[in-house]
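go over both lines:
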Amino acid sequence: MKKMVIDFEYAFSEPHTITLCRPSASEKVIVEAMKDGLKFAWTFNSLKTSYPLSWKKFPMDVLLAMELSVEGQPASLTKWYRHESGAPYLFAEGSVCGVDYVISAIAGKTGVMVKTEMINSHEADREVHVQMAHMNGWVISNMGWIDGIHNNVLMTMNDGRADRLLVYADGADDYPMYGIKTGETESQPPMSNESFGIKANSMKKISAHYTLQAGERKQGYFCLPYKKYFEELEQIKALDYEKEMAAALKEWERLLDRGTKIQIEDAKLIHCYRSCVADLFVMREKIGKYTGVVCGTNVYRSPNSGEPLETDMLLDTIGYTKEAVRDYRMYFEGQDADGCWVTRKGWEHEAWGLTFNKANAVMEHYYITRDKDFLEENYKRMYASTVFNHKARQSTRNLLEKAGRGLMPRGMGDCGMMNNGDYYGIFYPHNCLSVAADGKTLEAARILGKTEDIAFLTMAYEQAKEDLLASMRENLVQEDGYTVIPSVPNVPMSSTYGSLYAFYPCGLVSADEPMILETVKFIQGKQISEGGLPIGTGWQKQGLWVAMALNNFARAYLRMGKFDEARKFLYPALNHASLFVTWCEERGAEKGSKEISGDLQHLWTPLSVCQYLTEALFFEDEKAVHICAGICPEWLAEGKKIAVKGYKSHYGNTDFVIENRNGEFYYELKTERPIEKEILMYLPGENGMEPMKAD
């Protein structure tokens, strides 16, 4: 097995992207870092007026570009990283002409604060220019071009209120103006966005100028306010920028420290985990009258009941139950009058499988809290959904095409699954999920004693399960010598997304089901990239959807008992991140890939990292509770320990510690409620992690 080290060896190409905001805030600023500088983008819109669960892309109202030069020579950024706490706080470093510099940025209460620190290690004085240019908008942005005073202020000058502040600069020696002025020979204002270069026109940029003597250190700031106007400029001038940045960091640290505490003696791994948790809150915001989670920060900055709801389920287990419960309403209340639980008014319409996420979230929250009122409140939605699903399946029982009989009607596949080029069809993963959702309804009815419903629910579930499994077994396809589960009956494999869903998370077949085992052999035998991740899990046939390595496969392998196979994907997934520990949706398989798609900061991978790590430490199946089954053996090498505090399992608040003391293992396990199942503790042995029954 490749050594488990985080080095971002397979990071994709520039730009490296990170979104700056306060926790769960509507104001988000996307930053792209490249060798020649930083770019900032944001919209004046938010999801506060959006229809819940709908998709809409907002255009970026503001595009800014930042670059630095020393003695007229453009400076390159050569190092990028995220704050050690995991907070969305970026750093970029470089050096040129004897001047070393660090740019840092974090979202504070007033806006995004961008700090530039410079030190002159050269024996001679150095002239430094740090420029912030407005790359869209009208022909002028710098107020100083008009009044000769406010050379350090950029405003919209258009697109709504013309006096809205975009940038205020502070701390420089001066803010020189360059370029053509009215009354000179060439008086026509330039209309292009080519604002860079020291002598380029200053109409759309701020040029912050510093003279650094030998050994001198200076710093300056740009403030990018969320919503301030020229009349409020004095408030911006009065800001204590260091205090604002420190308070912003503290806010994130308090949030991250409030969640489940995981101790593993791999500092980089813990940094990645905390970064991923933080980004779950980057993706959380006000949506109409609700709060919820969105799928990305630009193209997919909208919610549905897919990975956003999975995110809230995760938050429910890692110490953020209050936030999760508040968010659940949006997903659960997204139901049509006829019981359809993938509302036709939302982005998720006809994506039949998303009913499982809703039903599963209800049940998991019940098992964590044992809150029967919560279960009772949502049971009516679960029951209505199962009634709708049953009627929908009955409508297909007379289809000419036998493979689709008794299955859900044509629906949306997504995730790279195509029906011979058609986005709509009868997709097995969605059918597995919808059947499993009806199984959850039956489960809830039994817990609540709904005796009048149980006969119908049992019939509906068993009939749907029988029809689906019969269709799957009769319509397997041949791929590279393997007999595998396709996305669509009788259609060549277009994506391996959801190919193991019948086993996990749906529980319709066992781990030793032949079609599951053969599909696993196909994935492991033909579909692994040089960097160690499954290929073809989404839209890119030869590309990577990094999240799926963990979400679709590693989590299933855990339940199969294939622990070595499960843990193999964790470090490779992390090493395919950007240097800010963010991931694009899909990408090429090679190092430094320039083939990237979707958002450059997408939700599903940070979610999947957190899902896998927490489940590798603690998961439950029908027979046992498994502790540390999916970890790497070196985490428990001699002298090391693993500790988890504040995890919310089916047994309430759960804490445990395992420590290797000179080759002897000591453990302590505490749960809020008794564990009635067998407890298996996994410890390093000759054959990897080996189970031991806990007392």
Notes: The radius of gyration is 27 Å.
